[in-house]
Amino acid sequence: MNSKKRIIKDYDALAEETLEQIKLRYPRGFAQHLVKYTDRNGKLVSALPFDCEDVYYLVRMTIREAEQIIEDDEDYDDDGTLRNDFGLDDEDDAAILDEASQNEEEEEESERLKKDD
User: Fold this and answer.
1) Total domain count, the chain
2) The pTM is what?
3) What are the Acidic residues biased-composition ranges (predicted)?
4) What is the mean pLDDT, run by run of 10 residues, along the chain of 117 residues?
């Protein structure tokens, strides 16, 4: 049984620590990682899934909002990639960033292969 809290929140309402974790998990932005679901009012909504140690978040945003967040965020470069010097105060953060980048590359390759079929 999964005992994690499930929380739906807007990006702007997240704690700074959670925002930093999201940036490390999605170093190339997150517009392409959004999922769609129907809310309790029957409205189709898009959100970024984000799994923490004790909470599973759905961070509400549209594709355009996701792109705008990255464009406006100084932690991302002009290409929409997290700057190399972001949050790399210790080796753990560097390892997280490397792993997230590798996972994202594998997901993108998997998507390309699906499209080629």
Assistant:
1) 1
2) 0.69
3) 98-110
4) 84 93 92 94 95 93 94 90 75 58 64 65
